[in-house]
Amino acid sequence: MKLFLVSFVSIIGFAGLLYGGNFLSDNNLIWPATFLLGAVGIFILYISSQQMSKAKKIHQDILKKQEEIEDKQSFLMLNVSEEILKYTKETVDRLNIISKNKTAIEDIDEVFNDTIKLEKSLLDITNDLIDFLRLKSKKVDILNESFDINNVLNDVIGSITNNFKNSNTKLILDIENDVPKKFIGDSLKLSQILLNLVERSMVMSPNDDVKLSISIFKKPVKNQIDLEFKINDSGYGLSEDELKHYFIPHYNEKTGKLENIGLFVAKQMTKILGGDLDIQSKKGKGTLIALSIPLETSETPESNYNLPSEYIGNKKVLVVDDSYDSSLAIKNLFNYFKYDARVDTVKSFLGNKPDMYAYDVVLLNEKIFDENIVKLITSIRSSKELKVISLNSMFETQTKDFLYQNNVIDRRLTTPLTQQMVFDAIVDLYDLNLKDENKALGAAKNIAKIPIFRGTIYNKENISMENFQEFENINILAVEDNIINQKLLTAILTNSSINVDIANNGLECLDKIFEQKQQYDLILMDISMPIMDGYEASINIRNDEKLNSLPIVSLTALVLDTEIEKMYQSGINAFLPKPLKLGQLYTVFEMFLGHKKTTNLENKVKKEKITQLPGLDIEDGIKKTNNSEILYNEVLKEFLDAYGNSAETFEILVDEQRYEQLKMLLLDLKGLTSSVGAYSMFKLSDEVFKLIIFNKKHLLPGYVKAYREKLDELSYSINQYTMKK
């Protein structure tokens, strides 16, 4: 390039000398001018050639990147299919062991628990499949609704508690004091992202602490902020190679499990929300995940955690939990109210016995309590007021009930704690009568006239959707923000001639009851919802005496004792945990509705059960979706949205000889069609895929018509099946 420029300048200079020195006559100037123009043309052609080369390279890089992304997604789908097959087979095998009693009685419980775990894994992988299809078909809508950050955290804690029972890991929440309570954004997706990330850290740290820190990443501009979540664990850590593939799903040959699918979904969801997701790790040193999400604040002075002025800044608090980091995080929550909070380690507390007389509130890990501690607390209370709170881990199954029975403790809290939990604890300890928005955090003014059932709802065996026909023509209001859960409930109940109305949040629920004057026999109430949560909605219903005979049953992932007790105080009559079990839902209907229809089910004409349609093995597909017709129905609809028009894409890729992209499409279809029991389409996709692999591409045009016909057949069958559900 330099040589070319030097030559070019020399030519111009020489031409200038000839012209300026009159060495040539005017008539002879045409030759230098022509030579000069030729040189300029060569230069322009050279520059143009360089630019075209660069543009071509950029285009090739983009295509390569796109192929890599599609390859990763296709590999994911193939592995999802294999994972579903694996879990389905193992679940069926274990159920056969139980039904045929091939094992000793004492081993039955173990086999049964293994079966439940496998069914949970199958349900998770099916939900991941739905998430992937939604991402693929660009059906992921962003919601901008007001939500409470505490509800998001409660959802995550509840799901983690269910998924990691008896875990030795300590989950810690560390929330900065300037983090607002209310935001505007998509709380459902934020909850899903956090759950997937925290679950992964829990797996990587089986015997260590996992800390979720929440802070404001950047100073607010008007009402816009970036909320940052840092998930820090001291577990196994990752190598450089593992770090590169952290958000890429893959099949682990050693463990026989599909890994990182939830992380893939979290990464994609973060991009959709306009956020950033990064990771730092070192083998043997733990991992740090940093998530930042842009949100809008919806704070008003009344919507914060407002205590009466006399209860702010004049209390001394001692915190002693089994993890020092956990104690520091709890101390930080009390500092919000300007309390003078101090922490101590369990070892130091037991060895030095600090002067508890100096404190107004003490929070002690429940394991610390012994006869001497109880005597000390009793002695202090003889001369001053001392509030005592016991702390238990979310995974702790055993509690010292004598502490409550003997009035040693005033309240039991389950860690990790949120700011709302600490606020509620202070309100409860000092029996504060709050006004305005904070009043919704207390108990309902009126008690329901129907009984409250505080135990675990019995999961009645051998219940199917047909059993709900006993309750036909009753009116149910399902208050639920998750569209999949809405569809599940609607499919179960409407098939039994039960009238189901849907409210997306607590405010819509109140509007239907008070403004639209709708009449319902029972309300199924989710708790963690945007705009207005289930607590506040239930309290507003109970504050109208005319509605005290209306049963409200919570249907939620929250499982902490403090949250469940708060449900009852809000006027809720019973608690159903997610995921929904038909037997428990049936028991709830029996408890609060009685048998509305006395006709024996045996005398009713049952709908003909469809097991096969052209190109679709329905029975097999249902087995692969946790034996749930409703979930299977949803997967089929999502498949049709994502790939129902792929025949045109197939034809274009064949005509334009874009074989790599065609290969990726076929890999997607192989994984998906196998997962839904569409074996005719699977066979065709596999056949075409092998033509590409074995370099018989000249035969591909002959498959364009066959592809369209098989897809039309499958689409028709899917529409036939889903319309009958």
From TrEMBL:
It is a multi-pass membrane protein. GO terms for molecular function: ATP binding; protein histidine kinase activity. Its main location: membrane. PROSITE patterns: HIS_KIN, RESPONSE_REGULATORY. It catalyses: ATP + protein L-histidine = ADP + protein N-phospho-L-histidine. The modification 4-aspartylphosphate is found at residue 526. Keywords: ATP-binding, Cell membrane, Kinase, Membrane, Nucleotide-binding, Phosphoprotein, Transferase, Transmembrane, Transmembrane helix, Two-component regulatory system. This is histidine kinase.
